[in-house]
Specification:
The protein has 336 residues and is mainly alpha-helical. It contains 8 helices and 7 strands, in the order ββαβββββααααααα. Keywords: Coiled coil.
Length: 336
């Protein structure tokens, strides 16, 4: 019986010796594995004539599984901020180690001999790839230079527009026309003279209605908005039409006298202090809710003692009698 051997493609142990590589299952597994690797190799072969250079991104760190060598290989070749697509896989396929591993894999698994050349890169093809890679790097640098120039032009344009805006703001205003200035000055003097004439009048009650003026004449710099009445404040009279004195000018008696007492009295303070002391005591204490002002008759004599704060129970009867006698004496005195 042949010793046990393990097939990495089928992932099982077999005891039939070299006959396993000719089995139907092994041939099917070998074909599927080669078909998975073949598209990646063909994409790398297309990059031999025209190498593509791109800016580095984390996705360029992908790896692929080399079936012949039994190891992972970097798919792209990265250096700094640049990445050459399929450069890592082409470098591995052109290495002599990969060629030896491919020959051994084809011998052990009895694969088709015509397919072996598809998984190998000759030194001439790899040299051609290096030349195309140099051209790709040069074209990429030219594109980057163009992009930088465009960005610089945009920056200069924005800076120029900003300077123009600042210059337009800082420039002095245009000098007004002397004719317009003289007309505005005359109108200003006219309004001042009218205000002075109205200020000399005694009050607003003695004002005469202003004569109607033709404000639609040409050459008038102002627009008529109606007859305006100017209120003039005189001593002893209010400036508002209602005639009321403003509240901030009224002198309050309570503030002017200064005799009013501020805050509670001494008796109120003592009462409040006593209430605060009682609030600190427990509410369920004995005698807390007892009404000392309630009237009791002589016929009510507690057999066990009323509510007390100190003393014995039998003393409550004597205390009640003493209080009753005192009340009777006081009532007789009031009647007399």
């Amino acid at each position: 019986m042949a010793p046990a051997e393990r097939c990495p493609l089928c992932r099982q142990t077999f005891f039939c010796g070299r006959g396993h590589v000719y089995s139907r299952k092994h041939r099917r597994q070998l074909k599927e594995a080669l078909e998975r690797l073949l598209p990646q190799v063909e994409a790398a072969r297309k990059a031999i004539r025209a190498a593509q250079v791109e800016r580095y991104v984390p996705e360029h760190e992908r790896r692929c599984w080399c079936l012949c060598c039994g190891c992972e290989v970097r798919k792209h070749l990265s250096h700094g901020n640049l990445t050459v697509l399929h450069g890592g896989l082409l470098e591995h396929l052109a290495s002599p180690e990969h060629k030896k591993a491919t020959n051994r894999f084809w011998w052990e698994n009895k694969a088709e001999f015509q397919m072996k050349e598809k998984f190998l890169i000759s030194p001439q093809d790899y040299a051609r790839f290096k030349k195309s890679m140099v051209k790709g790097l040069d074209s990429y640098e030219e594109k980057e230079d163009e992009v930088i120039k465009e960005m610089a032009a945009q920056i200069r344009e924005v800076e120029h527009s900003r300077q123009e805006l600042v210059r337009s703001v800082l420039e002095p205003q245009a000098v007004p026309d002397p004719e317009e200035g003289s007309s505005a000055l005359g109108s200003w003097k006219g309004t001042n003279s009218q205000a002075a004439s109205t200020s000399q009048q005694p009050s607003y009650l003695d004002l005469q209605p202003a004569p109607e003026l033709d404000w639609m004449e040409t050459g008038q710099p102002l627009t008529f908005i109606g007859h305006q009445v100017q209120w003039i404040r005189q001593p002893g009279r209010a400036s508002a039409p209602s005639g009321a004195i403003p509240p901030w000018m009224v002198q309050e008696e309570e503030h002017s006298s200064g005799n009013q007492q501020i805050g509670p009295s001494h008796e109120e303070f003592l009462k409040e202090k006593e209430k605060q002391k009682l609030k600190k005591l427990p509410p369920d204490r004995v005698g807390a809710n007892f009404d000392h002002d309630s009237s009791t008759s002589v016929g009510w004599l507690p057999s066990f003692g009323r509510v007390w704060n100190n003393g014995r129970r039998w003393q409550s009867r004597h205390q009640f009698k003493t209080e009753a006698a005192a009340r009777n004496k006081q009532s007789h005195k009031e009647k007399k």
